Amino acid sequence: MTDKTHEADVAFIKALAELLRENDLTELEVKREYAKDDGLNVRVSRKSEVTATMAIPAPAAQAPAYAPAAAAAPAPVAIASDDPADHPGAVTSPMVGTVYLQPEPTSPAFVKVGDTVSEGDTLLIVEAMKTMNHIPAPRSGVVKRILVEDKAVVEYGSPLMIIE
């Protein structure tokens, strides 16, 4: 790797860290391909306070420590079912980014509660790294709940809507 590439990678990582801080994100992961066998994988994260309602997947090495607690406690299972992300009709974010409920600030929202949508209809936009990603309806149904506000920052897997 040349010094010029190294300097560019350092600048890129600093920019990712700044993006993490500006958007109050906890983690960001990016993969860059330069050539066939040359690339850069970057994962930038920061510590965040974990609350009782937050579920964080455990790394493989810690999985046995969490398995008995999950199997032994039936009460948290009932609480977890109240989580919108566990709802069978939940539409979750496929990426970290900023949510936009309408195509332009002066336009009406893509959908509202009570609207009937078809599979593939655009529900909202998630902006990630200055790219507008249209999030399609994974199935046909009726929009029962919208769980995010316009311009909210979401993480991977965050529940966005409930479609039944």
TrEMBL record:
<dbReference type="InterPro" id="IPR011053">
    <property type="entry name" value="Single_hybrid_motif"/>
</dbReference>
<comment type="pathway">
    <text>Lipid metabolism; fatty acid biosynthesis.</text>
</comment>
<keyword id="KW-0092">Biotin</keyword>
<feature type="domain" description="Lipoyl-binding">
    <location>
        <begin position="88"/>
        <end position="164"/>
    </location>
</feature>
<dbReference type="InterPro" id="IPR000089">
    <property type="entry name" value="Biotin_lipoyl"/>
</dbReference>
<keyword id="KW-0275">Fatty acid biosynthesis</keyword>
<protein>
    <recommendedName>
        <fullName>Biotin carboxyl carrier protein of acetyl-CoA carboxylase</fullName>
    </recommendedName>
</protein>
<keyword id="KW-0443">Lipid metabolism</keyword>
<dbReference type="InterPro" id="IPR001882">
    <property type="entry name" value="Biotin_BS"/>
</dbReference>
<dbReference type="Pfam" id="PF00364">
    <property type="entry name" value="Biotin_lipoyl"/>
</dbReference>
<dbReference type="GO" id="GO:0003989">
    <property type="term" value="F:acetyl-CoA carboxylase activity"/>
</dbReference>
<dbReference type="GO" id="GO:0009317">
    <property type="term" value="C:acetyl-CoA carboxylase complex"/>
</dbReference>
<dbReference type="InterPro" id="IPR001249">
    <property type="entry name" value="AcCoA_biotinCC"/>
</dbReference>
<comment type="function">
    <text>This protein is a component of the acetyl coenzyme A carboxylase complex; first, biotin carboxylase catalyzes the carboxylation of the carrier protein and then the transcarboxylase transfers the carboxyl group to form malonyl-CoA.</text>
</comment>
<keyword id="KW-0276">Fatty acid metabolism</keyword>
<dbReference type="GO" id="GO:0006633">
    <property type="term" value="P:fatty acid biosynthetic process"/>
</dbReference>
<keyword id="KW-0444">Lipid biosynthesis</keyword>
<dbReference type="InterPro" id="IPR050709">
    <property type="entry name" value="Biotin_Carboxyl_Carrier/Decarb"/>
</dbReference>
